[in-house]
């Protein structure tokens, strides 16, 4: 629409004689406005028809970007029809009304005397719309770059654990106390016998999931009122080894030390801090109490302190307590089996073998699985999808802006062919002409930059506030879009100037 308004008002001088002649032979203002609005109507109508065709052709690409599969039969419903008609109506008025009034207000006597030129208001509007387009292009390019960097940072940053090649499968739905752990140990031993399996463990929640088990913990010497709310996870042997979780102090759960099952507990650094210990070393072998929601108190001894890690996607370091899930035959407190694979060769064959072992041990349960890094990345799918969509529409906006600048530059250079030819005859070279013509656009880009930079910074800051950890936005996020806009504009201008300079100045001056 902006391009249409710009080009329509720019070529007013070319249509001025037509308007002057028509007014002379009796055309009134209303009929002229109706004619030019009709032109805008048909342009918008054809554009809508073309857009439906493009949507149909681009549907597979759009579906892959947005995960939304468009049903074209749904486009025939009442709401879509009303919306489309609304777009057509608004587009016709928005893009056609101003050019129609500009053309219909042309004075025949001035035109027929050859004294018509674009009005100051028309030039100001056109320059303002170009500045607006440059501003939008810069803002979108800056935001696209910033969003891409943040999403990529969230995917690549250090989590405090290793979730690569970890396959997660389910524990049995039907369980008995007598056979639960013996069946699991049987499964674990069979899996570890495979050369491609390095670790196997089980827990009630896996890293990346939301921890909904929350109760009170305190030092043995503290009062009940000093107890702190903490989240906890039931884990088995090899949990920390499988995820490569680092211990700051102490030791891990071991099968050699049976007291770990009854009284051993591991806290994260954040949990230790929340309990009131000044450092991890001070907390080792200290007694703590677990206060259940129903009031019962269970005693523990801190055997280790784990380094903080990201349990939930995009979360601050959390106070997490790790409790042995074999404690008092807690067979209810484990839901997931984690299997660490040490190579990706013949992955399909490996998964089939793991499934056969699982089904043999748990014949009444289906083998369902997923990879933990995929599960974890799903937490960022909305941001990844937003980044893809934003990039797509930013490129689309930039393309439309380039088309508009291309058309206006072509008109500007063509309309000043005589001036270019005379200046060439007087000795002006290509550099002088480029400098002269580019000044207008450079000023417009400069104004757009002054508007775009603070707005882009503000919008990017608002969007990034949702993240706990943020990537450092370097200056190139702002400077590269500016350079891209300047170089693109200069490239378009150079192209049109070269095309014009191919013409013989004498022929151009004579024809003009």
Question: Secondary structure elements and their pairing?
Answer:
Blueprint: H1 2-10, H2 12-24, H3 29-66, H4 78-104, H5 108-112, H6 120-156, E1 166-170, H7 177-192, E2 197-203, E3 214-219, E4 228-235, H8 239-242, E5 247-250, H9 259-263, E6 264-268, H10 269-275, H11 280-283, E7 287-291, E8 297-306, E9 320-324, E10 336-341, H12 347-361, E11 369-371, H13 372-377, H14 381-415, H15 417-425, H16 430-464, H17 476-501, H18 505-511
Parallel strand pairs: 4-9, 6-8
Antiparallel strand pairs: 1-10, 1-11, 2-10, 3-4, 3-7, 5-8, 6-9, 7-8
Structure described in brief:
This protein has 512 residues and is of the alpha+beta class. It is 58% helix and 12% strand. It is built from 18 helices and eleven strands.
Structural write-up:
The protein is α+β, with helices and mostly antiparallel strands. It is 58% helix and 12% strand. The protein is built from 18 helices and eleven strands. The chain has helices at 2-10, 12-24, 29-66, 78-104, 108-112, 120-156, 177-192, 239-242, 259-263, 269-275, 280-283, 347-361, 372-377, 381-415, 417-425, 430-464, 476-501, 505-511, and strands spanning 166-170, 197-203, 214-219, 228-235, 247-250, 264-268, 287-291, 297-306, 320-324, 336-341, 369-371. The strands form two sheets. It has a six-stranded mixed barrel with strand order 3-4-9-6-8-7. A four-stranded antiparallel beta sheet has the order 2-10-1-11. A hairpin with a 5-residue loop joins strand 7 (287-291) and strand 8. Helix 16 runs antiparallel to helix 17. The chain is elongated. The model has no long low-confidence stretch (mean pLDDT 82).
